[in-house]
Amino acid sequence: MTAQDRLQELRSQVDTINLQLLDLLSKRAQIVTQIGKVLEELGGEHYDPMREAQMLTALEMANKGPFSNETIKALFRELFRASLALEEQQSRAKMRVQRKAKDERTIIQLPNGAVIGDGSFQLVAGSCAVESYEQIDEVGAALAARGVKIMRGMAYKPRTSPYEFQGLGEQGLQIARQVANKYGMAVTSEIMDQSQIPLFMDYVDVFWVGARNMQNSFLLKALGKINRPVILKRGLAATLEEFLYAAEYIVSSGNPNIILIERGIRTFEKWTRNTLDVGGVAVLKLESHLPVVVDISHSAGRRDIAKPLARVAKAVGADGLMVEVHPNPPVAMSDAKQQLSIPEFNDLMDDLAAPI
Amino acid sequence: MTAQDRLQELRSQVDTINLQLLDLLSKRAQIVTQIGKVLEELGGEHYDPMREAQMLTALEMANKGPFSNETIKALFRELFRASLALEEQQSRAKMRVQRKAKDERTIIQLPNGAVIGDGSFQLVAGSCAVESYEQIDEVGAALAARGVKIMRGMAYKPRTSPYEFQGLGEQGLQIARQVANKYGMAVTSEIMDQSQIPLFMDYVDVFWVGARNMQNSFLLKALGKINRPVILKRGLAATLEEFLYAAEYIVSSGNPNIILIERGIRTFEKWTRNTLDVGGVAVLKLESHLPVVVDISHSAGRRDIAKPLARVAKAVGADGLMVEVHPNPPVAMSDAKQQLSIPEFNDLMDDLAAPI
Amino acid sequence: MTAQDRLQELRSQVDTINLQLLDLLSKRAQIVTQIGKVLEELGGEHYDPMREAQMLTALEMANKGPFSNETIKALFRELFRASLALEEQQSRAKMRVQRKAKDERTIIQLPNGAVIGDGSFQLVAGSCAVESYEQIDEVGAALAARGVKIMRGMAYKPRTSPYEFQGLGEQGLQIARQVANKYGMAVTSEIMDQSQIPLFMDYVDVFWVGARNMQNSFLLKALGKINRPVILKRGLAATLEEFLYAAEYIVSSGNPNIILIERGIRTFEKWTRNTLDVGGVAVLKLESHLPVVVDISHSAGRRDIAKPLARVAKAVGADGLMVEVHPNPPVAMSDAKQQLSIPEFNDLMDDLAAPI
Amino acid sequence: MTAQDRLQELRSQVDTINLQLLDLLSKRAQIVTQIGKVLEELGGEHYDPMREAQMLTALEMANKGPFSNETIKALFRELFRASLALEEQQSRAKMRVQRKAKDERTIIQLPNGAVIGDGSFQLVAGSCAVESYEQIDEVGAALAARGVKIMRGMAYKPRTSPYEFQGLGEQGLQIARQVANKYGMAVTSEIMDQSQIPLFMDYVDVFWVGARNMQNSFLLKALGKINRPVILKRGLAATLEEFLYAAEYIVSSGNPNIILIERGIRTFEKWTRNTLDVGGVAVLKLESHLPVVVDISHSAGRRDIAKPLARVAKAVGADGLMVEVHPNPPVAMSDAKQQLSIPEFNDLMDDLAAPI
After folding, report:
1. Hey, are the CB atoms on C312 and A237 less than 8 Å from each other?
2. Residue C245 belongs to domain spanning
3. What's the Cα-to-Cα distance from C92 to each of A88, B6, C88, C221, C256, rounded to whole Å?
4. What average pLDDT is seen over chain B?
5. CA-based nearest distance A298→chain D, Å
6. Does C172 lie in the same domain as C313?
7. Do B73 and B203 reside in the same domain of the chain?
């Protein structure tokens, strides 16, 4: 027999074993599914690490090679994981934030008629912080003139240092509400603790969870119990998986109306404040049905690239962009380098209106 | 005149100007100090961005080169910053967490007599989570036998997914308290929301703020109002500066007894769960008087390098280390790969006892 | 005198000192400029750290507060840096790769008539590696049919492991050249060592420097001596500043025809292979006159987001994009997950043709 | 039958299937091993992606659930990978740089009698760059007085900017050799291109590959052909796996005498120049038999934490440390902030001599 022939024969033996393995794997999966049902009757957890440890020990003792025990255990651990996934998939919906059908979409309606997530491109805009009525009124007028429907009205500022400006508090919420009403806009404002929910219910259309609170699970769960939309910002070093799980905390607690914001991740690069993860936005739009907005202010930290980043937000298929606008950026109490002046904002809007 | 002579002469002109500049800078600083005092009388903010903008404009208009307006503004902005720092330093203590004298130390006494921050090397140890009384009792006995004084009693687990084990809750706190009392240990447990403070006061000796909550300023401020020590964990992508400012939130709210934990930062490396920032620990010990503890479990995410990392914690001058211990790591409900078994823990203690 | 009046008076004193400081700074800058000229006559370095150390010591000795010696030294160090920058700017052109006029552009002409950098949007496409004539011919035909003018013809593959496929070598270059000639395309191929230059001159229209060699200064300088364009890839953890300096190595050695490629940077994110730094592309287009191309294959590492990333490349103002295409991606010898099949490539081209 | 009984029975069915799977996996592995031998006779590659694609298609067609095709393919891909690993392990040594026996060690002898890798703790020290004979002589005398055996003699400096000091070149090598001979030390110097090998053979005892060249495979392979030890520095964003593979390039080309240096990785942290990956050092010592040295100068970028980091290097089990020493750090032509003065170096040596 030639080497080629032997190769042929050995390979057909492998093919046979492959099918036998498949057969056993399928049988095993069916039984495991039944186990899952029994466990549910018994009220137990599907995931039983002790049982897994026993099975691995039994396999280790039976293994005579040529695979090492390490390899055998690794292969079976993969199988356990697949089986567990199968059970979880069958007994419980998968992650609620994940896209099931290709065109599934969460579409969010705001009281002022604005819609986000329906394929349109929405702007969320306004000053980094509410500093005075005059400031917000001036910005609000400019935004309204360009059709912006959702205004930032930040009254509580999470700051790195306790000695930095922490926001105007309730007075800031009042100002934002007043201006928004005047111009027919919705208000979004950052909530920093679940104890603030009743206060915010009086002023705010869209709750905002900042990057520092992305994994504040008590706050997330509490926001799952209200019936207003929530903007959830990606943590500055959160993976996309962690980001979606944070949204899942809210959604699984009862509130499906979540808007994700990508705001740049922390890297070693120094010429931009953060690194806008545009590939991440593309992946989020692929994996999730939630609207995704691109924050072109915090991600860049510099106003001179606002225009190309706004075009990028549109091009990648995001549902909108977030941009900071201030009547006089150099004297802003925070984020002076990245806020646009009103003429710069108008310029950006003109640029966005043109096809790319 | 030779080139060398001309060089000599030009340089001496520069020397003269340097001293004139110094003289003006000092005069300016004195006046600015007086301005600070007047502003305090008037109840105004030291930092006045509008005033800065005016001064910069005046300089820009007066500038005839050769420095560009950009450069002049950059130089004066540095000067403004230095002046502001001077005022802040004079009117208010600098950051309270910063070391002023070379041997300044925050020494923390626990009710069970344990002391941390006095130059001794303390262990904080215990299972990742309280799963049952038996488990904690078994671990507690092993820890006590090796002289450990501070036990983990984690009852609320911050998890990436809402579907993962979230801890036993109050029952977990009860178990931890009971076991700690039995063996004369202090209990530390992670608090996740300020609403839990009253509950934790009943069970816990040392409050623990996790990495995800490092910048939860509402929680930090609330912990500044209690009279129990707080362990503060570095956020997974927090800079050292942000870490110290987070501690400052607590200290400036009234609670000086903070223990910092370095637990590894997030990087691209995959063979360890995180990257233990040992240089960061050295810098923290240099810059701050607070005790610093090294978490050798979460930083590595693998138990096979626990021993060298424990030696590292001692060598870098940390005030202690944090290590997870479980009676049966492979079946632990969380962090299975990184928890030490009891024999492994004993082995680690033997290794640590030997001089390096 | 009221507090307000005193404030007014103190502030006007500060204004006067500001102008005196400006005057002294300008005088000092003029003298330093003269020193620079003398130093050039003498053949010395502008930067003289010993001289700086002496000046700082003199200032330290003269300083009587209220600024600390630290602050005074920091302020003067800023001044030294500004002075040095001024000298450098005057005696030598600034970085050659930096944009001086707003509309300055490096426009590169290839022998086959393709032009890059003139405002058009060019495609650089082809398989990750040359594996066979048939493969490259099939891809080449597909590319040519869609008007692609620059083809990848990778014959030397930099691989992490010495045991992975290292490329076909000269045979690969021959195949690429042959196919490119057949379809009227230009060939680009990665050079890994300066000793390969003569060989590459026989086959390649555009030299390609990979991410791993971005700071191989011997190779960069050698490529500065040839008269063919060079594509320079950003290192996987290079800052934008380092990237531009790498280009400067080539340009300052004599070759102005450099094309920059952003290919994603290394971060902690796992759902994409790298993180496409789209903000970095915007900054590069702002700061430099060199053409910038976006690599949508390596940055993402997954073909399912190729379309949105291609639109992003166009939207951000890049001069083109780089995409990998393979007749049968699942069996490709490298980068199987990210290469597009020919139908996927055609689909991408259709998508790109539509306005965004 | 009770739920508990049914659970019991279903679980015993799973146990049976597990053993059947194990049996099939072992049989399959034996056949695959035979296939590997036949392939070697035939001169083919073990890894055959086309064959894998065929097998996956066959399984997909045969799969009737309940596992999805995705899951089945994922499980079999794991199996293919395990099989390939088995073949590779059997037909070829695994990575040569990996530790096989627990106490395996590469011990390197230098011509001056110094030994590294034998469990002793060696110092590699000297100025960042050779600037003059006087400077190196002064440092050399100080190092020799403290028993240092390996001296830095850096004559070619890889610099970010082409306009920065690039080293003295051959003159620098001459100076280093002369001083090393005077004090009985070995010289190590950074080589930047394979064309420099003959020159370096005249002057240098230990070749040094810098971080920027860690993946310059042409240089690595060329250094595999010489019979002098090589110090290989980890790239600034290289994973440990990439680092070991870079060493493997040299070792697999014939030169087993490699010393690894961890020099800190690039992260977002700003208070240290890089982040010393001490956990990485622990992992390298576990996984590889090569000596590992800790660079306490570049990793920190600040001399004020040199002492604790030196203790860390010793504590983690490294084979030595690398530290930069300069007669007058503030005026050094490079790395001014991190080089130790001679008194600081002596202080460090005293500190290191004490037990921790």
Report:
1. no
2. 108-353
3. 67, 22, 6, 19, 17
4. 90
5. 16
6. yes
7. no
Task: Look at residue D92 in the predicted model and tell me its pLDDT.
Answer: 43
- CA dist D6 to A34, A36, A50, D2, Å? 9, 11, 19, 6
ipTM of predicted complex: 0.81
Provide, as residue numbers in chain D, all residues whose Cβ is less than 8 Å from the Cβ of A58: 15, 18-19
Distances (CA, A) of B336 to B300, D328, D336: 13, 51, 45
Which residue in D has a C-alpha nearest to residue C94's C-alpha?
Answer: D163
- The long-range contacts involving D23-27, CB below 8 angstroms and separated by at least 24 positions, are D24/A17, D24/A20, D24/A21, D24/A24, D25/A21, D25/A67, D25/A72, D25/A75, D25/D79, D26/A63, D26/A64, D26/A65, D26/A66, D26/A67, D27/A17
Q: How many CB pairs under 8 A join C and D?
A: 84
State whether B180 and B260 are in the same domain.
yes
Q: Residue A173 carries which side chain, given as an amino acid letter? A: L
The tally of domains found in chain D comes to 2
What DSSP string describes D228-296? S-EEEEPPTT--HHHHHHHHHHHHHTT---EEEEE--B--S--SSSSB-BHHHHHHHHHHB-S-EEEET
Same domain, B157 and B217: yes
B-chain residues near D265 (CB < 8 A): 267-269, 275
CATH value at residue A280: 3.20.20.70
- Residue C103 falls within a domain, yes or no? no
Contacts of B298 in chain D (CB under 8 A): none
Nearest CA in chain A to D86: A67
Residue of A nearest to C300 (CA): A279
Tell whether C114 and C55 lie within a shared domain: no
pLDDT at A93: 47
For the segment A163-211, what is each residue's pLDDT rounded down to a tens digit?
A: 777 899 999 999 999 999 999 999 999 999 999 999 999 999 999 999 9
Tokens of C216: 């191989």
C83 shares its domain with C113: no
pLDDT at residue number C268: 93
Q: Within an 8 Å CB–CB cutoff, is residue C94 touching chain D? A: no
Higher pLDDT, C228 or C93: C228
Q: Does residue B12 surpass a pLDDT of 60?
A: yes
Tell me the β-bridge partners of D116.
Answer: D108
pLDDT at C90: 56
Of C99, C100, C148, C105, the closest CA to residue C257 belongs to C105
pTM reported for the whole predicted model: 0.84
Measured between CA atoms, how close is A356 to chain C, in angstroms? 5
A99 is a domain residue: no
pLDDT exceeds 70 at position A156 = yes
Same domain, C201 and C279: yes
Tens digit of each residue's pLDDT (9 = 90 or more) over B181-218 = 999 999 999 999 999 999 999 999 999 999 999 999 99
* In a domain? residue D101: no
Q: State which of A64, A91, A118 marks the end of a domain.
A: A91
| B235 and B122, same domain (yes or no) | yes
Q: Could you say which of C33, C65, C91 is where a domain stops?
A: C91
Indicate yes or no: CB of D248 within 8 angstroms of CB of C194: no
What percentage of residues in chain C have a pLDDT greater than 70? 94
Label residue A85 exposed, middle or buried (CB < 10 Å: 0-12, 13-18, 19+).
middle
Which residue do the tokens 């508990």 mark? D4
- By DSSP bridging, strand B108-109 and strand A292-295 are unpaired
On whether residue D74 sits in a domain, the answer given is: yes
CB distance from A51 to chain D under 8 Å? yes
**Contact across the interface for B28 and C14, Cβ inside 8 Å:** yes
List chain A residues with CB under 8 Å of D48: none
What CATH code is carried by the domain that includes residue A58?
1.20.59.10
Give the list of residues 6+ apart from residue B246 with CB closer than 8 angstroms, or none: B214, B215, B220, B232, B235, B238
Q: Which residue has the tokens 């008037």?
A: B42
Does any CB of chain B come closer than 8 Å to the CB of residue C78? yes
